[in-house]
Amino acid sequence: MSGLTEDQVAFFRENGYLVLPDYLSQTEITSLLEETNTLLNDFSLETHPLTQFTTGDDDSTAHVGDDYFLNSGDKIRFFFEPDALTTEPDPLTGRAALLKPKNLAVNKIGHSLHTLSPPFKAVSLNERNAAIARSLGFVDPRVLQSMLICKQPSIGGAVPSHQDSEFLYTDPPSAVGWWYALQDAGPGNGTLGMWKGSHKGRKGGHIKRRFARKEGSLGTEFIQNEGPSLPRGQEEEKVSEPTEDELEILHVNAGSLVLIHGNVVHKSEKNTSERSRYAYTFHVIEGGEGWEYDERNWLQPPEGGFSKLYQ
Fold first, then answer.
1. What InterPro entries would the database entry show (predicted)?
2. Residue pLDDT, tens place only, 198-223
C-alpha cells in the first residue's frame, strides 16, 4: 500500500483535514451498515443504565462520566441521545423512558468496535490505514476510541466546536481521527464543519483544555492543559484567528474517509432532517517512545494496551 501522495499530505498539513472519496467499497459500506443495524436492534434495555452521551461544553452542562461510559474502552456499549429520553423518570420504574424505538434513540455505539466487531475491525486494523499512518509520520500508531455515530433523524445532537486532542491527549499531542461516512453527509443532516488551518497555532489551535476524569471519583470535567499544546515539530504560525464566516461545511459522500488533525477546530450541527447520518470513526495516537498517554484521559488503555496499527 502506497499511502497518501505528497500533495495529499501537504493538503492535510496546511488545512488540518483531508477528504479521500470512495475509500470504502460498496461491499464494505453494506457490511458496516448491516452490522450497525444488528447491533442497534439486538442490544438489551433490561440492565442498560440509559446513559446519555453529552460531554457538555462548559461547567453549566452535565458531562457524561458514569461507570458505563468510563469503562467502555474495551467494550461495545450504547449511548442515547438526550432528546430521545423523557426528562422526568417514570414514577413506577424510577427510570427515564425512551421516546423513540431504541434503534432510533442511540447517539453512538462505542468504544472498541475495532477489536470486537469483525466488520469494523476489518476496515480499521489493516495495511491500507497503516500506510496512511506512515505517510503522516507515525512511528508506532495505536488505534483507540472507535465509535459509530448515528446522528438520528430530527434528534441527532449537535457537537460543539472542539479538537480531538482535548479528549485523547498525549504529551506532545499526536491524535488523528479517521472518520468514515457510511451515509451521505451534508448540510441539514449534521455533517462536519471545519475551520481550515485552525490547527496551526492560532488562538484556537493550541490544546488549552482537556476532557479528563475527575480525581478520586466518577465523572469527567474539562481541565486546563498544562502540557505541550502543539504536536512535535509543529511551529506556531502567526495567522489570524478563524471566524464563523470561515467555517467550511463539508459534503461527504458515503464511503469517503475524512482524516482530521487532532488540533483542528471542527464541529457538527444537529440533524434536523428526516435522514440519518451514520459515520464510523476511530482515532490514532502515537505510541512510540517520547509520547506519553495521559493518565487522566477519560479513556484508559485496556489490558495489553491500545491496538497496534503496525503489526
1. Phytyl_CoA_dOase-like
2. 998 765 689 999 999 998 878 999 99
Amino acid identity of residue 14, one-letter, is E
132 and 4 Cβ atoms separated by less than 8 Å: yes
φ, ψ for residue 109, nearest 5 deg: -115, 130
Do the bridges between strand 266-268 and strand 17-20 make them parallel or antiparallel, or are there none, so unpaired? unpaired
Candidates 110, 252, 109, 270; CA nearest to 181 is: 252
In angstroms, the CA 198 to CA 254 distance is: 26
Query: What is the maximum span of the chain, computed from C-alpha positions, in angstroms?
Result: 62
243 three-class SS: coil
Question: What DSSP assignment string belongs to 60-114?
Answer: TS----SHHHHT-TTSEEEEE-GGGB-SS--TTTSS--BSS-GGGTEEEEEEBHH
Name residues of the chain where pLDDT drops below 50: none
Cell of 218: 466518577
Contact assessment for residue 180 and residue 132, using Cβ atoms and an 8 Å cutoff: no
Query: What distance in Å separates the CA atoms of residue 55 and residue 62, rounded to the nearest whole number?
Result: 7
CA–CA separation, 152 vs 108, rounded Å?
Answer: 10
